[in-house]
Amino acid sequence: MTTSINTLPLKDRLLSLFYENLPHIKGNATPAANRLREMALAAFERQGFPNPKMENWRFSDISQLLETDFAFDFSNQSRPFNIEKIFTCDVYDLDTFSVTLLNGWFVYKNAPLTRLSNGTIIGSLAKAMEVYPEIVDEYLGKAASAEKSGLVALNTAFIQDGLFIFVPEGVTVEKPIQLINIVDSQVPLLLQPRHMLIAEKGSNVTLVNCDHSLTHNVSFTNTVMEVFAHPEAIVDHYKIQNKGKNSALFTNTFFHLQKKSRVSSNIITLNGGFTRNNLHVTLQETETHADLNGLYLVDRNQHVDNQVFIDHAAQGCFSNQLFKGILDDQARAVFSGKIMVRREAQQTLAYQNNKNLLLTDEAKVNTQPHLEIYADDVKCSHGATVGQLDPEAMFYLRSRGISEKSARQLMMLAFADEVVQKISIEPLRQRIGSMVERRLKGELSICDQCVLHCNDKGPTTFNIDMSKI
Amino acid sequence: MLSIKDLSVSINGKTILDGFNLEVKAGEVHAIMGPNGTGKSTLASVIAGRDMFDVDRGEITYRGQNLFDMAPEIRAREGIFLGFQYPVEIPGVSMASFMRTAINEKRKHLGLEPMSGAEFLKLMEEKKKLVEIQSKLTNRSVNEGFSGGEKKKNEIFQMALLEPRLAILDETDSGLDIDALKVVANGVNKLRSPENATIIITHYQRLLDFIIPDYVHVLFDGRIVKSGDKSLALELESKGYEWVKKEANMAAAH
């Protein structure tokens, strides 16, 4: 069912839609999930949508977006859908276990939930709530607090579907799991996928998350993902955002780390209208390790905002943030990285670096480091740079016969490469490296055209009549 | 090959080159010497196309073309090479992709097919020997972490790969120990041919022990005040620049 009421402000519409559609929204969710959603709705009602008066929303104004007359899918509209036929993602033919969400709903290719021979469960969160309610209830909402964020509260109130991954103790999932999020709608759509990744003790899993749009229409994606890394677990997360100019993508990712676990988060923003990444990492127990990398390549009126909060709550933990961005035209970037070191968190190592390359006078970046340190035996550093391409280096390259355009590209690639090199899986690094290269050469366009250009094989493989999708 | 006539160049209103003349023919090696701050490096930069200077007067023709009509990269593709006094470090850009891009953009300009990866790597290995570079350059960033000597060798290495018609070596000898100096000089000598020309800009005579110039010019106050053969360099070494300065000042007084 697609529902739209266009007379009330979005917040009020959502509140009334919640009650009108409650049976649909609840579906087969667990009683605990439904209790959580009622509390979250109250939290959303209290907090509402973010506005620029809030400290961490000062540079990102979404008021115009909230004027849109959005529709909502409260049931799985997923029609017979052959993903390979209409869409090939650039990292797609990597050897991955791949799953797809269409407009926030899990696409049932074979089965809604797959249980691998090693015990790993991958599939639809909605289905997981029916089949594995005890696992879902143990974790849902435990890392993502609805009390501190209106967007998280809103997502939690409307939890229906998303990706569910459970990796049992000691299991290494050989293939990366790839999640492709596609938005395809004839009307402006608000969607709120909810993902959950549980990596039990000593397990090892890689998730590659690709966000794409197949539509020119305005879309509002408000995602929440909770990642639980049990002791000694290793979780690598890659997020590749290549969205249309009319898309607004809010991604709230929460990592919860237990003793000696290691996570990496790599957020690669290649295109997007409005992109906001809230990354919240809690180093709950001792000797954990978090590598948080980001790369954003934005032009025209694109707006990208990365907010990192890293909470050193235990002794002997390591965190490193490296976020780099290249801004062209009138693009705007915001970075805010907060490192909290609590009193117990002695021997903390926490580093943060945000580097920006501005290609025009009109591009703009706001970068803010925050350190809040209550322990005395710590090593913390932060740095932020905003600069242009080095004219000396430009002349050096040109003096060897390299055109101004190629020289710029070489230098931009070099700038971006520091983040690309952090990708530990070789084929993935090559793929993402090549996407970054094509993006900087202007060959990877925004997803208005993504459906035509997202493939190495060239546009001929897609003879799609968009009106029939 | 290169003809500079009555060239006057200033930076922020301050005249650096003032009525400078020079003729360079194919097969020749010219040394331009002079005290610091007399415009030697400015001359090199102006020929290579750095745009921080104002050309107030005069002309430069290169193989019959007005040099000022050509962008720096076009000058390079047409065969001009500047060996930098201070080679620039470019973190993240590998030597291999830098030189391969340069070679292929030049080849495209000349209407040639691009060089394949295998051909290019072979060429790199061959030219590395010329300047006795042992390290794996392929994956190293341009000049990043190179010692002073390595940077200068790297300039000659690039010159060897690009095979210029006109090479301008700006203080390539500065900061080199005697062994590195010999390697650099040896590289330059091997690249010498009747078809190409070299301008060596130097403060000291010692590089000219190894690269024998056809002409030596003394630059003072933005113009050439004295020209001669290699013996002029030796004379300068023994008498110092004061001698030339005095002569120049006397000439100006008359």
Describe the protein's architecture and organization.
The complex is a heterodimer of chains A (469) and B (254). By secondary structure, chain A is an alpha/beta fold. Chain A has a domain at 2-285. Chain A has helices at 10-20, 22-26, 31-47, 83-86, 125-131, 133-139, 150-157, 391-398, 404-420, 426-440, 450-453; strands at 2-3, 72-73, 97-102, 105-106, 113-115, 121-124, 163-167, 177-183, 189-191, 194-199, 204-213, 219-229, 234-242, 247-257, 262-271, 274-283, 289-298, 303-312, 318-327, 332-341, 348-358, 364-373, 378-387. In chain A, the strands form three sheets. In chain A, strands 5, 6, 7, 9, 10, 12, 14, 16, 18, 20 and 22 form an eleven-stranded mixed sheet that branches. In chain A, 52% of the residues are buried. Chain B has 254 residues and is an alpha/beta fold. Chain B has a domain at 2-89 and 165-253: 3-Layer(aba) Sandwich (Rossmann fold). In chain B, β4 (54-62) and β5 form a beta hairpin. In chain B, α5 (148-162) runs parallel beside α6. Chain B starts with a strand and ends with a helix. Classes of the chains: A alpha/beta (469), B alpha/beta (254).
Write a concise keyword list for the protein shown above.
heterodimer, A: 469 residues, 11-stranded mixed β-sheet, 10-stranded mixed β-sheet, disordered C terminus, B: 254 residues, alpha/beta, Rossmann fold
The CATH topology of the domain at 2-89 and 165-253 in chain B corresponds to Rossmann fold
Number of helices of chain A: 11
What's the main sheet of chain B like? 6 strands, mixed
Q: Strand portion of chain A, in percent?
A: 35-45%
Helical stretch count of chain B? 8
Class based on secondary structure composition and strand pairing of chain B: alpha/beta
Mean pLDDT across every amino acid position of chain A: 87
